[in-house]
From TrEMBL:
The keyword Protease does not apply. Keywords: Repeat, Transferase. SMART domains: RHOD. This is Sulfurtransferase. GO terms for molecular function: transferase activity. The keyword ATP-binding does not apply. Residues 121-140 are annotated as: Disordered. Residues 17-126, 157-261 form the Rhodanese domain.
Length: 264
């Protein structure tokens, strides 16, 4: 697993004293304050970096709004960010994708979540002292970004790309992109350990669904939250040709795109 993308609790514990390693807790503020958090973590709740008013593609909040969040959290562009939640990383992965899209070079997902950390390491309710920064975003260009739009998806369908639907089975049966395979994002998570499954096991699970490095992979769900987790995991495993349909099925249906229904 590539540590420049996903880090273990042991890695984070060993780097907590590094002033350039900034930990971001994306849970609701009541959880951050009332339940406790990783020492030194700042709270940037999920809803604060999600916007459904079309300010940017899909539910992205816009580069300036996101930069304002990081500025208030005392984060600089050169910092290493490690994000976590308490839901197997799915909300934190959305933060990772958003930060990458707006040009933050070094942002990583904690392997596991708050509960996984709490099993082995101390937590605190003490809020860190913050010194605001003047964060300047550097959004990726269309050529640099993994995000694709409706027209790109149409082209990928013609190329017979591997479309991966990360939703639950009832959602998949109600409507899906033509030829898509259903791969529930939670397939990569060990529920008992609250961590990702071992790398070799992940490779086997992905291969069972035809998700392999030699294929062009296009990820989608409903509103791009769940595919964020799958995207981060695939990148950490070294998958290079992975596209991220930010508009997902919500946009596809709004444009009257072709769908399949029913069980496979």
């Amino acid at each position: 697993m590539d540590e420049s993308i996903v880090v273990s609790p042991d890695w984070l514990a060993a780097h907590l004293e590094d002033p350039q390693v900034r930990v971001v807790d994306v849970r609701d503020s009541w959880e951050f304050d009332g339940i406790g958090h990783v020492p030194g973590a700042v709270n940037i709740p999920f809803d604060s970096y999600r916007d459904e008013t079309d300010v940017d593609r899909g539910t992205l909040p816009g580069a300036e709004a996101f930069a304002d969040l990081l500025s208030k959290a005392g984060i600089s562009p050169d910092d290493t960010i490690v994000a976590y939640d308490d839901t197997h990383g799915v909300f934190a992965a959305r933060f990772v994708l958003t930060a990458l899209e707006y040009g933050h070079d070094d942002v990583r997902l904690l392997d596991g979540d708050y509960s996984a950390w709490n099993r082995e390491y101390d937590t605190t309710s003490e809020e860190p002292a913050l010194e605001p920064t003047d964060y300047e975003p550097a959004p990726l260009t269309r050529e640099e970004s993994p995000l694709i739009d409706f027209e790109d998806v149409e082209s990928a369908l013609e190329r017979d790309a591997c479309f991966v639907d990360t939703r639950a089975s009832d959602e998949f049966e109600e409507a899906r992109l033509p030829g898509a395979v259903r791969f529930d994002w939670r397939e990569v998570v060990d529920d008992e350990r609250r961590r990702l499954k071992p790398e070799a096991e992940l490779e086997d699970v992905l291969a069972e669904y035809g998700i392999t490095r030699d294929r062009e992979i296009v990820l989608y769900c409903n509103t791009a939250r769940r595919i964020s987790h799958t995207y981060v995991v695939l990148r950490a495993l070294g998958y290079e040709t992975v596209a991220f349909y930010e508009g997902s099925l919500t946009e596809w249906l709004a444009h009257d795109g072709d769908v399949e229904t029913g069980p496979v």
